[in-house]
Fold this protein.
Amino acid sequence: MRRLAGPVALLAGLALLAVNGSAAYRTSHYTYNDGRCHKRSDPVNLILSGPNATAGYVGDRIYLVTGWNSHSGSTQRFLTGGKCSKMDGQLASGTFGRYHVRWNRLAGRNRRGQPGVSADPHHEDWACALPPFHAVDKGSVDPAHYDPTDQGSGFDQGRRELIEQFGGKAGWANWGNTKASKQCDGDWAGSDGWTAFVQMG
Amino acid sequence: MHGEGTHPRKWAAGAIAALAALSLGVFGANRLPVDRDAVATAPMTARAWLAEVNALRARYDLLPCTGAREATNFRAYALGARFRGLRATTPVRQCGAPYRAAYRTGPTIAPPNYLMVAYGDCKVRSDTGCAPPIEVQTFPACERNLATYSADPSGAPLPHRSLRVRGAPAALFDQGTRLEVYTGRSTVVIFGDKPKLVRRAAEAVRPLGGSRLARLAPAAASTLQGKLSCAEQGAGP
């Protein structure tokens, strides 16, 4: 038995390393608007984690802390753990100029072993009449189109608002997912590439 | 009814011909279209705004934003006036003042400082907007490079695959749908839905308004290590 103790301890150590090393959520950096997750849409810019962070729990918490109660908006898909699945939910703060977030459960666990949910919070305006579509605010810091606000694009604003509603604390990682999308008003909207990680109780 | 439709049709044909002639002028000789409205209407106050923005940017070791009439102060890249039959769109310029990521806490984030040229068009069919087949964004290397990324707040590296594109170091992200080429003092980021098209775009990358070079200048070693400061990079390619 003693002769086995060394190798067993070594194997256990290696196994632990492997578990810790792979302790990460597995997610694409965008949402998708087609059934095969080929056509990228919004940047994922927020991860919500916690011991109970299932899709249902996170949806309830978003509703409770923000009061956003509109379920209107188009359906998107998320790619997580290699699986392309329809989003788990969405909430918006109103109908016209509004905050809007879609979310979906994540494959994998974080370093604390907790489940998580990815989300695409953004601010958008009802910018187009026919057909009646919302447009996410463009990156507002654009010297070619003088618009001197310093809030970033609609994605950066939405992320900031939701973090604030959840208490203002977050960890940060730069994923570089700055791909821009053309909006119905002809503007281009994209994220600044940063993703916030919010820990929920 | 047919007779009534003839005149409008003639007008439409004339307008299309005029537009085509204009386009030839704009798109000819590997030049990219200029957003003439923006240039013409850029107000004087923009200069004051830029001065304010740039004073803030200097505090965070970021390159100054350039104005609407100016060339970028880093070498920008694109794929020419057309790429595999896809026409270049009007370049989009982004640059601005750093801002707080959250109101009370969080890091100060430098907004993306890039020049983007998209190839091909797409039709917005819903609230989600749409993405053209290829987007090429060029950033100054001191503001965006491999060392600026992480997968999570612990600083774990963002998964990627290293490779070389025409002599320059490069990295593939997001299942091959994002390819970054680190050349000279620029970071060229190519986004596309199809990995094969993204790789082909990387082979076609050329300086904006210039011709394709067989080899791209490799990035400075300090860039890849994340040690190139913008004060050191300075203005220019």
Q: What stands out?
A: Chain B touches chain A through 67 residues (CB under 8 Å). The first strand of chain B starts at residue 77 and ends at 78. Residues 1-44 of chain B have pLDDT under 50 and may be disordered.
